[in-house]
Amino acid sequence: MQIGTIVSLAIYFIAMLGIGFYAWRKSTSDIDGYVLGGRSLGPGVTALSAGAADMSGWLMLGLPGAMFASGLSQAWIGVGLFFGALTNWLVVAPRLRDRTVEVGDALTIPDYFGKRFPRGETLQVVSSAVIVIFFTLYTASGLVAGGKLFDTAFGESYLLGVLLTGGVVIAYTLFGGFLAVSLTDFVQGCIMFVAMIMIPIVALNGAGGWNHAGEVIRSVDPSHMSLLKGVGVLGFISSIAWGLGYFGQPHIIVRFMAIRSRDEVPTSRNIGMGWMFVTLIGSLSVGLAGLAYATENNVVVDDPEKIFIILSDVLFNPWISGFLLAAILAAVMSTISSQLLVSSSSLVEDYYRRFFRRNASQKELVLAGRLSVLLVALVALAIAWNPGASVLNIVSHAWAGFGAAFGPLVILSLTWEKTTRNGALVGMILGAITVGIWIALGWSDWLYEIVPGFAISWLSIWLISLAESGKNAETARPLTAAE
After folding, report:
1. Which candidate among 209, 263, 274, 437 keeps its CA 20 to 30 Å from the CA of 449?
2. Which residue spans traverse the membrane (predicted)?
């Protein structure tokens, strides 16, 4: 690894730790501050924190790789994600910010479910278990990605990459809590934003400009420049359906709970959607521009998902290359930290305080939160120790699992007064089970599993709630006039 790259990465790591130290001094005196930053996030931090926690390494590696290999037809996933995120901001964000306060200052999504419905303890425990289990696996996959980045991009040990990535994330998350996670996400979102503009512009210039690059791409495969080539009806639905996952992602929607006020949601939405639009266009452009550059300059690309790494290495000097590669780490680390904190928050709020220490002091709860971060992180590190861990096969479907289990429940609990506790519980469980069965039967190859999972979850909640509505059922607490 060249000295410029080493220095750039060192500066990045030190900056993340510095933010963690700042957050530790500012906002971790009580559990509300540790878990939600005291609900004090400004619109800019909320927006970029949600975006950075969402995109992960998929934005830098997965989507550019898909564009490189298959062309513009892969852009429909980005379209689905964009409109899913926009709907999430419009429907969920303002309502969730208010309702989590109104039901009794709920600090986690399971805590909200438990307080939203009378006798909601079972609902809270089940949803919390789903979060802890899947986010531990999710965290492990992020650590694996960090290790493989060090191995492929820097020629360093895989285990060194896992330990460095995990060590820095664990440190600032454990000590700084939600504020540290959100502020580091903001910085990481800025790094990702700059990287996704720089790479395609320089690559297109190196490929002879946009017009010539288009000719080069068509010479490789004319279908690469077609949005519809090879996209059937079910393929189109599967791609667009990625957007349904947003409503059920705890590490994203928890940001809506932490913004200062409902009035700042529109500003945050505009910032967040602007960031997402630019980074998605940049990600798609990296794949196409990378194909043109590699073809024009005879650059060997053995793995399409490495195109961002390759372009960072061949187009820039080591100092800038280090910054761009830090963008990949930023994408990975922002998601890891968010998942660690959400898992920790569930362990403390939904298990420790509810079942063991109802009268625990604020200092004790913060300590329990830090120990929970460490516990989840250690389990994830153990899983990630093996670079070929099979957990990656499971985690690739976790987006659908969370979306189907929690998405319909989040929306209906915020918008439909007749939603009942039993409907919520059955819908959540059936949504998750449907996704699992769909994957096990191998049907995901022709239709993305979130489609049947989301539909069955929604219908279950709706039908059971309607059946119980006239029988003095355990319905959700009434919605406010603002909703």
Report:
1. 274
2. 6-24, 75-92, 125-146, 158-183, 190-210, 230-254, 275-294, 319-344, 365-385, 397-416, 423-441, 447-467
Task: Answer yes or no: do 55 and 151 share one domain.
Answer: yes
Residues 305 and 430 in one domain: no
Asked if 480 and 380 sit in the same domain, the reply is no
CB 279 within 8 A of CB 115: no
Tens of pLDDT along 312-367?
888 888 888 888 888 877 777 878 888 888 888 888 878 887 778 777 888 888 88
Per the CB < 8 A criterion, the answer to whether 379 and 143 are in contact is no
Q: Tokens standing for 348?
A: 């403390």
Phi-psi region of 386 (alpha: psi -120 to 50; beta: other; left: phi over 0): beta
> How many CB atoms within 10 Å of residue 38?
18
CA distances, 237 to each of 232, 366, 423, 434, 447 (Å): 9, 44, 27, 18, 8
**Mean pLDDT across 28-53:** 78
CA proximity to 275, closest of 186, 403, 203: 186
Give the integer Cα–Cα distance in Å for 254 and 93.
Answer: 9
Distance CA 280, CA 278 (A): 6
Query: Do 46 and 181 form a contact (C-beta atoms < 8 A)?
Result: no
pLDDT at 481 over 50: no
User: Tokens 């915020």 map to which residue?
Assistant: 414
Tell whether 377 and 411 lie within a shared domain. Answer: no
Range of the domain at 30: 3-390
